[in-house]
Amino acid sequence: MAAAGNGSTAEEIDAGVRKKAKKISGIGADGWFTETAPMWPGQKFSLALDRASSPSSRDSSILFHEQSEFQEILVFQSAQYGKVFAIDGILQLTERDAFTFHEMMSHLPLFSHRNPERVLIVGGGDGLVLQEVLRHREVRKVTLVEIDPMVIRASKECLRLVPPELYDDPRVEIIHADAAEYVQDPEHHEKFDVILADTLDPLGPAESLFEPEFYECMHDALRAGGIVCTQGENMFIHFELIRDLVACCKDIFGHAEYAITSVPSYPCGQIGFIVARKGRDNRSCSSPIRRPTPVFQKQLKWYNPQMHQAAFVLPEYVKQELSGDATGTNANGNAITNAATGYANAGYYHDDNDGDEEGDRCILSQCVIS
Predict the structure, then answer these.
(1) Which pTM was predicted?
(2) Rounded to the nearest 10 degrees, what angle do helices 316-323 and 239-253 cross at?
(3) Active site residues
(4) What is the active site of this protein (predicted)?
(5) What is the chain's percent helix, strand, coil content, to nearest 5?
């Protein structure tokens, strides 16, 4: 094998990229994993490692830890939440509550589509969304675009929350590429019935997956009547982002909604989904048009038709803001505004009446909401 320019072989260089880091992001000397991120300032979430009593025993709780070309990947055994998967020190899922997110992300759009034959999964290398998609007999082809092969390797070797052979299902095609570039390719226009964007938070490389251009490309990749479902962040701490994403998707797709679920290990215990349908059919996705068979239903822990409908029932301030009706009346019939609730003063909302004739710029770059 030819040596690289510095005298090392290509294998040695590759091993250097993938070597275990000495310091593990998020894990302290006390044997606790603590997640901190700029997207949820002023708060932390911590989980104890399974064997936190001494450094030597803590090491045995680390099941996988490597630095890939793109990110730091960690799988560890926790004391109460089972196996935990983290990327760059940010918790992605736990064995204890992952189903509350992945079942809803998958089945909300899939049961809202009459015949979802072709499905695109953006990210999702852990395989949990893939597992839910493959439960649908209508699905003939699933394309999983995961930029980092190491995510799939960690899932197969150590996380093992889905059978490793799931990735070898004849209906599954795995592509290691940048999802933003993949959906831009004209070859994939009008190709998919459902797109599931199981993305990271909009930090670092994942920022491009929250830009209007990415949503426009997903729109182009959908067939008529197709549905996209994306990770929609937390309504308590990311409300401006949610509001702007929904408004942007309404403009691009014609119809968009926000749905919610509970995930105890996520910030504030809540996360949402942006669900948008392409084309003139602006029918809400809040009621399933197909239902799981009894056999299918027994395989699930969280989703059912009632939970589907309940996911779209939103708190009043969220419903009003997302519908564009930010005012109401009090018991005497007098008009009230969000300012009366204290939300506006707390900095939750943009000023839509600032005199900007071109429309208000949302926190998504290059997006103008008129």
Answers:
(1) 0.83
(2) 40
(3) 198
(4) 198
(5) 30, 25, 45
Nearest of 47, 72, 71 to residue 61 by alpha carbon: 47
Give all strands of the β-sheet with 90-94 in edge-to-edge order: 62-67, 72-77, 83-87, 90-94
Cα 228 to Cα 9: distance, rounded to the nearest angstrom: 44
CA distances (Å), origin 138, targets 25, 193, 271, 354: 41, 11, 28, 49
Contact between 51 and 62 (Cβ < 8 Å): no
List per-residue pLDDT tens for the chain, 370 residues long.
333 444 444 444 344 444 444 689 999 989 999 997 888 888 999 999 997 656 666 789 999 999 999 999 999 999 999 999 999 999 999 999 999 999 999 999 999 999 999 999 999 999 999 999 999 999 999 999 999 999 999 999 999 999 999 999 999 999 999 998 999 999 999 999 999 999 876 666 566 666 889 999 999 999 999 999 999 989 999 899 899 999 999 999 999 999 999 999 999 999 999 999 998 877 899 999 999 999 999 999 999 999 999 999 999 999 999 987 654 433 344 443 443 333 333 333 333 334 444 444 444 544 544 4
For the chain, give every domain's residue range: 25-94, 97-323
Q: Which CATH architecture group holds 97-323?
A: 3-Layer(aba) Sandwich (3.40)
| Fold designation for 25-94 | Spermidine Synthase; Chain: A, domain 2 (2.30.140)
Please name the residue that has the structure tokens 């025993």. Answer: 57
**Whether 121 contacts 196, CB under 8 Å:** yes
Quote the crossing angle between the two packed helices 239-253 and 212-221, to the nearest 10°.
Answer: 40
DSSP for 134-197, written as a single string: TT-TT--EEEEE-S-HHHHHHIIIII-SS-GGGGG-TTEEEE-S-HHHHHHSGGGTT-EEEEEE
Residue length, the chain? 370
Pairing mode of beta strands 45-48, 270-278: unpaired
**Tokens at 224, concatenated:** 């008529």
Q: Is residue 54 within 8 Å of residue 148, measured between CB atoms? A: no
Q: How far from chain centre, in Å, is Cα 275?
A: 12
SS3 276: strand
